[in-house]
Amino acid sequence: MNDVTRPRILVVGAGFAGVECVRRLERKLAPDEADVTLVTPFAYQLYLPLLPQVASGVLTPQSIAVSLRRSKKYRTRIIPGGAIGVDLKSKVCVVRTITDKIVNERYDYIVLAPGSVTRTFDIPGLTEHAFGMKTLAEAAYIRDHVISQLDLADASDDPAERASRLQFVVVGGGYAGTETAACLQKLTHAAVKRYPRIDPSLIKWHLIDIAPKLMPEMGDKLGRSAMEILARRGIDVSLGVSIAKAGPEEVTFTDGRVVPTRTLIWTAGVVASPLIATLGAETVRGRLAVNAEMTLPGQDGVFALGDSAAVPDRAKDDENAICPPTAQHAMRQGKHVADNVIATLRGKPLTPYEHKDLGLVVDLGGTDAVSKPLGIELRGIPAQFAARGYHWMALRTNVAKVRVATNWTLNALAGDDFVRTGFQARKAARLKDFEFTDAYLTPEQVRAHVEGADREE
Ligand SMILES: Cc1cc2nc3c(=O)[nH]c(=O)nc-3n(C[C@H](O)[C@H](O)[C@H](O)COP(=O)(O)OP(=O)(O)OC[C@H]3O[C@@H](n4cnc5c(N)ncnc54)[C@H](O)[C@@H]3O)c2cc1C
């Protein structure tokens, strides 16, 4: 076979789902069976569950940015950029490269795995003043930002300025928000010892959520254990509360409290990547409505998975259940989609995806953790062992495993130096600046762009 006749498989997104899919395609397909192309803005797969540990300085950013090119079977063509629209009719994916060049990438099979972005609401000031915890740049930015609040509070003699710099608000009582608040509180608690001019009692962390329970997926007992750990550390947890408005130096809670703060971290859920809306296809709460084989009904050669797709959860009794947006599902779906793409290529039947949740692990920093692997409730050191063991095993390359283990050991033995790098100082830092949510085309713009390009060819 020559290049022209080889089927083109295009994978969009190099996260848990996309990378597992690509690696399996590389392993199982003969080189002349198909061309595999991957569209990704970054040169790494981000291990998101460990982001709070990057923000708190336990891990360096590089240790959770796993190389895409370190694989024995590596042969995928990588386009450095983001997909900004997909035209299902002409089978074209419109890509903006990292140099802002617009490229039309034609495909025979497309695997959509662009993940999710931070879910926001129409709350005054939220998108201007909140930080998210979804990208490596955000985690590194937040770390610098928190340390700079200590530096500036230390240098200031103004009590009002000190108060606003030393209070921190995290919104979202799911595992991401809880881990973020817990890990960052540990950072400020340890760092303040190096700031003799700061009264430690002025440092206050708030964790708030509109839901009545913290991490409901952990169950009542472990949720309560997590609350006790946070309370012991002085973190103020408020449930049934959200943000009414946010400003540069204070936030107002829905219960009327006004908290002086310059740090609002928003982790109140995710929504599918805006790329999904460019398809103009059916969605379930923003996620692309696919069947259990992870194909888009009525379309030839379109697969979607991970956080961006509503994959039926066949392990649950409820026939309307969809898989939760977790790495656990995304990784397994990635492998399964690769098998289904190969089956399609070879004219074999596709198989439905099914996976029973293995549970959740929550690292609250130090020896504090709560975990529920396979339904077994763990607290303290056994829970921490399960949490770190699980993440360590799930890291894709041995080099990443060594980096993470070395960082954990070094941090446990020598602590943190609380160094502010300043790499992103004075740069705009709003949610959309990190997550590029305004980069996408509308379905009409995609169509017009593709038709225009077709006429020029
Ligand atoms: C702080 C935090 C903690 C978490 N902890 C856990 C945990 O403990 N356990 C668990 O199971 N899950 C956890 N999750 C959830 C888990 O990380 C996600 O469910 C998982 O990453 C989803 O995988 P994915 O491949 O769909 O998306 P992602 O892993 O997010 O990958 C999407 C990829 O697509 C890229 N991309 C985005 N847009 C485009 C585009 N337009 N074009 C091309 N590429 C694009 C992104 O850069 C990214 O590389 C956590 C999430 C967060 C934020």
From TrEMBL:
Highest taxon of source:
Bacteria
| SUPFAM superfamilies, alphabetized | FAD/NAD(P)-binding domain
Q: Which UniProt keywords apply?
A: FAD, Flavoprotein, NAD, Oxidoreductase
Database matches in InterPro entries: FAD/NAD-bd_sf, FAD/NAD-binding_dom, NDH-2
Q: Please state every residue range assigned to the domain named FAD/NAD(P)-binding.
A: 8-334
Which Pfam families does this one have?
Answer: Pyr_redox_2
The entry sums up its family as follows: Belongs to the NADH dehydrogenase family.
Protein's recorded name: NAD(P)/FAD-dependent oxidoreductase
Q: What organism is listed for this UniProt entry? A: Streptomyces cylindrosporus
